[in-house]
Write a structure and sequence with these properties.
The complex is a heterodimer.
Chain A lengths: L8 H5 L16 H8 L22 H11 L6 H20 L2 H12 L3 H12 L4 H12 L6 H29 L7 H14 L13
Chain B lengths: L8 E2 L14 E2 L5 H11 L7 H29 L4 H7 L4 H34 L1
Antiparallel strand pairs in B: 1-2
Classes of the chains: A mainly alpha, B mainly alpha.
Chain lengths: ~210, ~130
């Protein structure tokens, strides 16, 4: 379905899967400042509650219609994510700037079914919690000095990695003609394949004390 | 390659003597909620199986750990671990690299915007 790295029309619009929220703190502060700079995204839909820092989307404004409609959903993640990310989303509008891409995205999005739209929204909104990621990084490095950009980068990389895993797992499922939710065996096979492709860093020292 | 063990997992400490408030043990399900939404976004069911989510979480943590260790290897020459080290690691992986540069530049933009906003606010405050 949602494909980040294939010849889909999606590829045209984004280069890579979404990733976690970039900016933390203030938001409302941001919204006005950034909204002003938005280049002619007339879309009233520049809904601040939009999606977290996800793929380069020129479609931010357009999507927000879908999003606001979906606001009544049960996804509580929205609360935290949107706070953190709405400014990011807005800022993305001016920077992506390519009217062509934007137009294409809008065309694609307009044709989404509800299910597709909901999935796309999850794709855009989801991300790793900065605090959790930071905690993890601190525990791995043993040092307290983890900068915010580093958390952002690692979260982004991790999200794309999850995408690769899930997509490969789906491919495995189709090969086996399996249906339903993804099962651990599919994920393991997917992981094995990714390793073969060299997308997973190899450990030079084996993991002893799991 | 069985990653799922019961309850908590102890991670070997690498040369740090910090009484970590964070983790000696890695709690399960730290990323569970985020992962569920993420997996749905990427193509899984609306409600992914819990065991699948747990497995993916393990894999991701292992992936991040390995990445960080590798980055630290590069960084050890310089001393500090920098963002550039991660970027160097993924240099061959174009989607990731592009995404990261995009995120970083957006972050910069936001910082600028924030600064500008603060300056304005001061002006307004001083006017009162």
């Amino acid at each position: 379905m949602t494909n980040k790295q294939s010849k889909d029309p999606f590829e045209v619009a984004f280069e890579s899967p979404p990733d976690s929220p970039i900016s933390p703190d203030e938001n409302e502060a941001q919204a006005p400042a950034v909204a002003i700079t938005s280049d002619g995204q007339e879309d009233d839909d520049v809904n601040p509650n939009f999606l977290p820092a996800n793929p380069s989307t020129s479609t931010a404004p357009l999507i927000s219609t879908g999003v606001t409609a979906a606001a009544g959903k049960t996804k509580e993640e929205e609360e935290e994510e949107e706070e953190e990310n709405m400014d990011v989303e807005l800022s993305k509008v001016p920077s992506s700037g390519d009217p062509d891409k934007m137009a294409k995205m809008q065309a694609i999005l307009a044709q989404f079914t509800e299910e597709q739209m909901s999935r796309y929204e999850s794709f855009r909104r989801s991300g790793f919690q900065k605090s959790n990621m930071k905690r993890l990084l601190v525990s791995i490095t043993g040092s307290q000095k983890i900068s915010v950009p580093m958390t952002i980068v690692v979260s982004g990389i991790a999200k794309i990695f999850v995408g690769e895993l899930v997509e490969t797992a789906r491919v495995v499922m189709t090969e086996r003609n399996d249906l339903g939710p993804i099962r651990p065996c599919h994920v393991r096979e997917a992981y094995r394949r990714l390793k073969l492709e060299g997308k997973v860093p190899k450990r030079s020292v084996s993991r002893l004390f799991r | 390659m069985n990653t799922s063990s019961a309850g908590t997992t102890s991670k070997p400490r690498v040369g740090s003597s910090q009484p970590s408030d964070t983790t000696f043990k890695r709690k399960r399900g730290v990323f569970q909620k985020d992962l569920q939404h993420m997996m749905y976004g990427f193509g899984d069911d609306r409600n992914p199986l819990p065991e699948t989510v747990a497995l993916v979480e393990d894999i991701v943590v292992e992936y991040v750990t390995d990445m960080v260790h590798k980055a630290q290897e590069f960084a050890s020459k310089r001393g500090k671990l920098l963002t550039e080290d991660f970027l160097y690691l993924i240099r061959k992986d174009h989607p990731k690299l592009n995404r990261c540069t995009e995120l970083l530049s957006m972050n910069e933009e936001l910082k600028q915007a924030r600064k500008a906003f603060e300056v304005d606010e001061e002006k307004l405050a001083s006017l009162d």
